[in-house]
Amino acid sequence: MFEIGLTIGWAAIMILLLCIRADIRELSVILKESRREQLRNSFGGRANEVYPNFQEESRREVRQEKKEEPRQTSSLNKSEEQVLKEVLTEFLG
Q1: CA 8 to CA 4: how far, in whole Å?
Q2: Which among 33, 87, 86, 23 has a CA at the least distance from the CA of 62?
Q3: Percent helix, strand and coil across the chain, each rounded to 5?
Q4: Torsion 67-65-11-30 (CA) sign
Q5: How far apart are CA 86 and CA 84, in angstroms?
Q6: CA distances from residue 46 to 34, 54, 59, 69 in whole angstroms, order as listed
Q7: Pair 33, 62: CB distance under 8 Å
Q8: How many CA atoms lie within 13 Å of 52's alpha carbon, on the beta-carbon side?
Q9: What is the pTM of this model?
Q10: Phi, psi dihedral angles at 61 (to 5 degrees)
Q11: How many other CB atoms are there within 10 angstroms of residue 40's CB atom?
Q12: What distance in Å separates the CA atoms of residue 28 and residue 22, rounded to the nearest whole number?
């Protein structure tokens, strides 16, 4: 009975730590964006036109973090395709 309670406690602690970690990541993105906004506002007037849109740049960074590595695809020649089809039909029936 004690071991079950201990296991449930550890699971609850791990879930809590994962939630805290997600919140910290979210807050860091918000803080980074606000710093860029302050920097952009401190230049003022015509300088805003010269520098890139910091908010779009932060969005791009967030998207890049979320993206998985692109898959590499290569074209097969006819004989390789035939071998692949034979192997797949053998294993899949």
Answers
A1: 6
A2: 33
A3: 80, 0, 20
A4: negative
A5: 5
A6: 20, 15, 23, 39
A7: no
A8: 7
A9: 0.39
A10: -65, -40
A11: 16
A12: 10
Question: Which SS3 state, helix, strand or coil, does residue 60 take?
Answer: helix
Q: What is the rounded distance in angstroms from the CA atom of residue 23 to the CA atom of residue 16? A: 11
List of residues 6+ apart from 48 with CB closer than 8 A: 40
Average pLDDT, integer, range 54-70: 65
Question: Which amino acid, 27?
Answer: L
Reported residue count of the chain is: 93
* Assigned token pair, 54: 């910091």
Q: What's the pLDDT tens digit per position in 14-50?
A: 999 999 999 999 999 999 999 888 888 887 655 545 5
